[in-house]
UniProtKB/TrEMBL annotation:
This is Respiratory-chain NADH dehydrogenase, 49 Kd subunit. The keyword Plastid does not apply. Pfam families: Complex1_49kDa. Residues 103-199 form the NADH-quinone oxidoreductase subunit D domain. It comes from Mycobacterium xenopi 4042. Belongs to the complex I 49 kDa subunit family. The keyword NAD applies. Keywords: NAD, Quinone, Translocase, Transport. It comes from the Bacteria.
């Protein structure tokens, strides 16, 4: 958690003092006293908006240390990617929704969280939990997809492009949103490269979020099928 103490003139930040560590949970230290099989339960809580990325990163590290990277079932790898990409959508939706809330676009907040609920419904169907799943395990997964998971995922993938366009249009045509993002937070190329920031100002940074979701919505091409079950 990053705390920023700002001095401002109007909406221009003239000075910033940073404080870090306000959400320090000691997860890394806790893991030192646990078996490697117990680690997923901790790391999934590191970032509640992106739990599957945390779980996968941890499991990839464990698998590399155990020397079993090439033994992970293909189906498990495909499902891991699918879950992370769905997680990517939900994370971007939260960013758009909370950004809208902070800048006065309350409708964008309601729509963003409404669409996120669709993703969490899929997570609950597949893992039994909406957050903090512990689904991805060293060596594979906790369990296979339920019988109706693929059908529900395809319904979501068919619905979401239209919903995403609606949210994007709402923000792009919102006067308050545009007034408070256009030309704000500008950095030249050198500054972006030095700080690892994507895009030169707030408007393109925001535009990248729905744009990042669109390739994810094509994961239907992974063609996960129940009749292609294998080891997990």
């Amino acid at each position: 958690m990053l705390r920023l103490i700002l001095e401002i003139e109007g909406e221009t930040v003239t000075e910033a003092r940073c404080g870090i560590g306000y959400l320090h949970t000691g997860i890394e230290k806790n893991l030192e006293y646990r078996y490697w099989t117990q680690g997923v339960t901790f790391v999934t809580r590191m970032d509640y908006l992106s739990p599957f990325f945390n779980e996968t990163a941890y499991c990839l590290g464990v698998e590399k240390l155990l020397g079993i990277t090439d033994q992970i079932p293909e189906r498990a790898n495909v499902i891991r990617v699918m879950m992370m990409e769905l997680n990517r959508i939900s994370s971007h939706l939260v960013a758009l929704a909370t950004g809208g809330m902070e800048l006065g676009a309350m409708t964008a907040m309601f729509l963003g969280f409404r669409e996120r609920e669709l993703v969490l419904n899929l997570f609950e169907l597949i893992t039994g939990l909406r957050m903090n799943h512990g689904y991805i395990r060293p060596g594979g997964l906790a369990q296979d997809l339920p019988d109706n998971a693929v059908t529900e995922i395809r319904k979501f993938l068919d619905l979401m492009p239209r919903r995403l366009r609606d949210l994007e249009d709402l923000l792009n045509e919102n006067y308050i949103w545009k007034a408070r993002t256009q030309g704000i937070g500008y950095l030249d190329l050198t500054g972006c490269m030095a700080l690892g920031i994507t895009a030169q100002s707030c408007v393109p940074r925001v535009a990248l979020r729905p744009a990042a979701c669109r390739p994810v919505l094509r994961i239907r091409k992974l063609r996960i099928r129940r009749d292609h079950r294998g080891q997990l």
